[in-house]
Amino acid sequence: MQPRFVHNGVLHEEHHSSNDEIVRDIIIGFADGLTVPFALTAGLSSLGSNKLVIIGGLAELFSGAISMGLGGYLASVTEGDHYDAEEKREYEEVETLPGAEKEEIYKIMRVYGLEDEVIKPMVDAFELNKEMWVKFMMRFELELKKPDPSRAWISAGSLSVSYFLGGLIPMIPYFAMHDITHALFVSIGITVVMLLVFGFVKNMYTVGTKKSGAWGAIQTLIVGVLAAATSYGIVRALDSRNPVMTQGKLTASDMN
């Protein structure tokens, strides 16, 4: 539920997103999925084998999705462990060094322009409630927010699924078309459109202006194009140094 306030007889309702972390994971996963597999399949297409592009692309797609999910899970678990360790340390300091911790409260609140006589009642209240005292120190001194216990699995799922869906889009032409050159150009066209749309929507959601949306579209497109061009160039260069592999056959002398 969004906070509601009445000011001068007018109802004011604040709109804030409560799913920022999920949206962030989806953005990261989809952006990586849209660029990395696209760059790989574009690079592999220079070898001229449609089957190689599909197999290599699917292998990267599945391994990348698993890797993204695992990375998100481990990062969330580590974040939770870090919070618990810091919280335990804060409890110990409140018990053993209350004077120093009280002074920390004064330092924190003075930043907001509050005088000591205004801060003192807060300090006295925290002294009677150690749990709230520690929560305050965690939030304002260490700037840490208690992670949701289910965050690890949600993060893993969001990153993995969004990566897989993003990476599947550039590969669709290779499944539907036999001519690898035509498939490459169709893939490029689809991916360019998706990069522009994704970049625009991403910035519109996070910033909220059309100008930022347009800039986000340009940024995302530049990153995707550079990644694909680099991958294509590297594979093409390696292929030119080893033409035997491109022909898909090795002679007996090549194997010795």
From TrEMBL:
Subcellular location: Endomembrane system
InterPro entries: Ccc1_fam
Keyword Lipid metabolism included in the entry's annotation: no
Gene Ontology terms: biological process: intracellular manganese ion homeostasis
Alphabetized UniProt keyword annotations: Membrane, Transmembrane, Transmembrane helix
Membrane protein topology class: Multi-pass membrane protein
Cellular compartments per GO CC: endomembrane system
Lineage top rank: taxon: Eukaryota
MF GO annotations: manganese ion transmembrane transporter activity
Transmembrane segments: 26-45, 52-75, 152-176, 183-201, 213-235
Major subcellular location class: membrane
Family: Belongs to the CCC1 family.
Protein's name according to its UniProt entry: DUF125-domain-containing protein
Upper classification of the organism: Eukaryota, Fungi, Dikarya, Ascomycota, Pezizomycotina
